[in-house]
Amino acid sequence: QVGTIAQELGFRAYLVGGVVRDILLKKEVWDIDFVIEGDAIKVAQRLAEKHGVDYHPFEEFRTAHIKVNGLKLEFATTRRETYPHPGAYPLVEYAGLKEDLLRRDFTINAMAVCVNPDCFGTLIDYFGGLRDLKDKLIRVLHPLSFVEDPVRILRALRFAGRLGFKLSKSTEKLLINAVSAGLIAKAPKGRLMNELRLALREERIFEILELYKKYGVLEHVLVGIRWSPQLEKKLLSLRDVIAWHRIEFPKEKIDYGWVYLLVLLEESEKGMDFLVDISAPAWVRETYEDIKKNKKELTKKLLSAQKNSEIYLLLKNKPLPFLLILMTEEDIKEKVRVYLEKLRSVKVDLEKFKGLSGRQLGKAIEEEKMKLMDAL
Ligand code: ATP
Fold first, then answer.
1. What ipTM does this complex have?
2. Which ligand 1 atom minimizes the distance to the CA of 159?
3. What's the pTM?
4. CA-CA-CA-CA dihedral for 194, 197, 201, 205, to nearest 10
């Protein structure tokens, strides 16, 4: 339909960017990006009218989006971007498809598929994106790519981690040079934080963090963080804990990326400032404070706790992310595991407490629960 509408208007429409990559990788897609050689807003408007839905134009950028059948469709007018200085927000001018593709980050994200009826389904691949997809390589389009936009350094590692790809030899060299030239610090903080938030949402965040470590990028974003064998061991241990939690308690799934971040920040002096900068959700900030204030003492008490009821009392008010982090400590892991698997779900027979109510009932139930768990 988009292609037909574009054709009626005398424009050309293309699927572009991540959606093309994901279709070629046979992944599900929900966000679909089109570029229009012509006027994207007109295409979006006509499509929205046909479906009886709203469209949301951004006149300044000549873009628009609409939502149909659970899909988000983005329409952009093909454009060229130039960067007045490294990391700056780009200057935008109208241009054809090739230049629109040339402004993109990596070859695998710079392919297009024509959707006009006369060329429907034709892949347009000026930079060898299809070959790089097959060879599992992340490759920039030109040598100044990371200089133009240093956020791409983090994006390259995010895609490499997500897809299990490597950086091409030349891209790896360019990335190493860009990192050692301190370019990351030149990128606007908001964009860096945004990129990091996207990384934290990735399923394969552990692999991404490994790449951040390998190329020494996190130090430039997260001031005060220092990689140490202990930290690495902890992250590895967290990976195992999370894999266990995903399987054992699928209904309790949380955004595990934030838990990794909490571990990274545990020893940092400026952790809270960073959480504010990255607009971390309230539960993350609260857990961070809780960890800072109480983890040492709690760990000590857990170490000496003998009875199940003691473990229960120590852990019963702790939020899940805190518990997962406690499980990264070898010597208390087992106790926290027992709490999560057994103690917190001990049930009592309420028949026994007929006649009691309010506080008295609550207290009696707790006492009975503890008796039962100590007998386990
Ligand atoms: P995801 O699956 O994470 O949504 P995506 O490839 O769709 O991946 P977006 O951030 O939505 O990523 O960007 C859409 C497209 O815009 C990318 O595929 C890429 O072509 C281009 N792009 C995004 N960010 C940049 C950037 N910093 N520099 C150059 N091109 C970019």
1. 0.98
2. 3
3. 0.89
4. 120
